[in-house]
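Database export, one record per block. Field names are fixed; values are copied verbatim from the stored entry.
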Amino acid sequence: VANSVVPERKLSTPLHESTHYLFHQSPMYKIFKHEADRVMEGKKPLYPGIHRVISTMKDYFEQNPEAKRYGNVNDNLSGAILSGFDEALAASASALQDEKKCRITDPNYNVLQDKNREWYHGFEGANKLAPAVFPLFKSYLAEGKPIDNSFFMKLADNMQEFQKTRNNSRNNSAGNLSQTAIIANKQNRQPR
């Protein structure tokens, strides 16, 4: 990949690509895609956790249009959201393998504390989402749990980078007290 610090040949690549395949074959892919359409149409959620994640990503991409640019998927907001989650999920699978590999030489290595880590090159939305997805992905995998609406509820609570950027761009002139109230309000609101 041009301009990427990610090595060209690495063991985690097949795991990354297999995660794409598994996600696309799962019922969750269709549910996520359907819920994305509901968010775009302003409809009430069928799956509140998924709806919250998609709504947060939608708001973020609307405030940061360059963040949704990836390959030829430039202008389709719903497609950028779906691709962003898909790539963040696959990047989490790669990170899990990378973390295990690095722990051979450094038992205390934590992929989330690696400041040099590029989660996904060239797609800011996926790159920002992956660190929020990773701990949930890792714990669900270890426990043998399927990705469900509860996963997305927890993910929505972990998306501070998206929420911080969204709230800062909307309220850059607000004082600290009102900024805190807005953030708390956004986290507790029920999606439309």
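Remark 1: The longest helix spans residues 77-102.
Remark 2: Residues 169-192 have pLDDT under 50 and may be disordered.
End of record.
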